[in-house]
């Protein structure tokens, strides 16, 4: 057996060791909001649409979170690679401070402007009212969600992917128990429906955030926090954000594109909106392996660059990408074949389920490209090269998905099929852009 083969096997083991807990942890994180969708789906299609719309607006806050976590990952990974734990702790603390400050305006917007936020995405007044209730409640938990995101990013950058997994499992147990109680009115509690789903998810985020902070304060994991003076180190915060802003802008562009896309779907009625939300949630699960391998590659690239091993960083990224394409290809085949049964897990048979099957199958054709894009983008971000994933997302969303959806859906009259068919085209183009950037090798010299 050659040395190259041995190294490749060692890399795969290192990648999988980092990736599988991330995949399961992310799966559990998405499951928290999916439990809401499945449970309210037992009540009706309008409830599915309302919770899905509310969930999309919560996802919109991820743009700010990613602006912090992209910087957190790059800086913590390099500090760990350079064996400077004190600096890694400092980056974690200042990331949490930045998260706390940036979450405050989001909470206020969610509480006071919920009816206006959900209006463009609501095909009926009933859905608008329920979605506004969901948003007003769940936005109270945004600061706790920030803590969870930043904690997950920092621990994974430090090579600890199992702690987020365990805490994610705890969050889901809490979420399921409270949802079961409040959505349906069990154990003598009132049946709150959509509002019960928001309360359960919010409490689960609070519990997860408190556990993370407790572990950091007690220094029971690979990195920790201590009180710093000054409390907010603006030099460090600017450094974190300088790295993270391109990633946040990418996510902002993506989320705006998603919301515009949903507005297009709204014109085709309640069943189409419900099917779209089901499809997006299935899409989120399909993304998990790609995201997990992306984070593993990001951590390994950052650590190897921190240790002055750029060639090993390159090999780590390439091996991660190969694994991602293979795994995501298998998921694509599964989703395409079993789409009818997947859709029925969310709603009763009817038009919404039939349309959801169409969405799931169309999306399945894009999943291998999604795996390639996610993993190479994560590798670039781990190096601190965050601009090219942004460029790929901007081109994919605004030059391909939205205009192509409008052209096929409205101009050619293909309806909802035309709106959705643009998705695979977009991701194959995104993949081509990041492949070209990665192969150029400039990311190896990125300065963070």
Question: What attributes does this structure have?
Answer:
mainly alpha, 16 helices, globular
Draw up the topology in text.
Blueprint: H1 3-41, H2 45-60, H3 62-81, H4 85-112, H5 114-118, H6 125-138, H7 142-157, H8 162-184, H9 194-217, H10 234-266, H11 270-306, H12 310-344, H13 351-364, H14 367-382, H15 387-411, H16 416-440
Helix pairs in contact: 1-2, 1-8, 1-9, 1-11, 1-12, 2-6, 2-10, 2-11, 3-4, 3-7, 3-10, 3-11, 4-7, 6-9, 7-9, 8-9, 10-15, 11-12, 11-13, 11-14, 12-13, 12-14, 13-16, 14-16, 15-16
Task: Describe this protein's structure.
Helix 12 runs antiparallel to helix 13. The model has no long low-confidence stretch (mean pLDDT 88). The protein is mainly α and 448 residues long. Helices cover 83% and strands 0% of the residues. It has one domain. It has 16 helices and no strands. The radius of gyration is 21 Å and the shape is globular.
The secondary structure category is mainly alpha
Number of helices: 16
Q: Rough shape?
A: globular
By DSSP, the count of extended strands is 0
**Largest sheet geometry:** none
How many structural domains are formed by the residues?
1
Fraction of helical residues: over 70%
Radius of gyration: 21 Å
H-E string: HHHHHHHHHHHHHHHH
Structure summarized in a few sentences:
With 448 residues, the protein is mainly α. The chain is built from 16 helices and no strands.
